[in-house]
Amino acid sequence: MSGAADQMSDAELVARTARGERTALRLLFMRHHTRVYRFVVRQTGSETMAEEIANEVFLEVWRQAPRFEARSQVSTWLLGIARFKALSALRKRKEKALEEGQAEAVADSADTPEVSAMKEDKATALRGFVNHLSEEHRTVVDLAYYHGKSVTEIGEILSVPIATVKTRMFYARKKLGEALQAAGYDRGWP
Asked: Which fold has domain 8-106?
């Protein structure tokens, strides 16, 4: 595969990966690794963990490609795999920390002086407020605004009904608006 490979759709690359073509997987990796990595960084808060998980996602693509049914976009499928792996890694990390008696390692969700300092810049403050949302709300905001996914795609990635996505988005936006207003910003988006 060469220049013509660059013109292939993601679905065709997955089909070729399913047939064992490593170059097709490499091209999928080149196209989507950064997006998957950034998504996982926002989910886990760890660049190291994100790099590991992003690589695992493409190993999973190699294994799962024959079962890909193209009912969703390849990018949606990839982010779904990434989300599952990120949640699994976070759960394992939390269990390990608690097993080792390090409950103090669990992050405190209260505002920090850092959050107060971020209020000077609305866009920075908004990102900080997004990070303090519940995992469910943060995920829908991240997928919608940072990854440009539709409500339908978000539902597929999270394996929840569209109505649930809309409800989570409504409450996430409401909480962000309240946080911005409490910080002295108008409710408009940056």
From this structure: Rna Polymerase Sigma Factor; Chain: A (1.10.1740)
Within 8 A by CB and 6+ apart from 45, the residues are: 131
Tokens of 165: 């996505």
H-state helical runs in 132-185: 135-141, 151-158, 162-182
Comparison of pLDDT for 126 and 10, the residue scoring more: 10
Kindly report, as residue ranges, where domains of CATH 1.10.1740.10 are found in the chain: 8-106
Residue pair 5/24 in contact (Cβ under 8 Å)? The answer is yes
Residue type, 146: Y
pLDDT tens for each residue of 118-140: 445 667 777 778 888 888 898 89
**pTM score over 0.70:** no
Rounded to the nearest 10°, the torsion over CA 66, 72, 77, 80 is -130
DSSP state of 187: S
Under CATH, which architecture does the 108-190 domain have? Answer: Orthogonal Bundle (1.10)
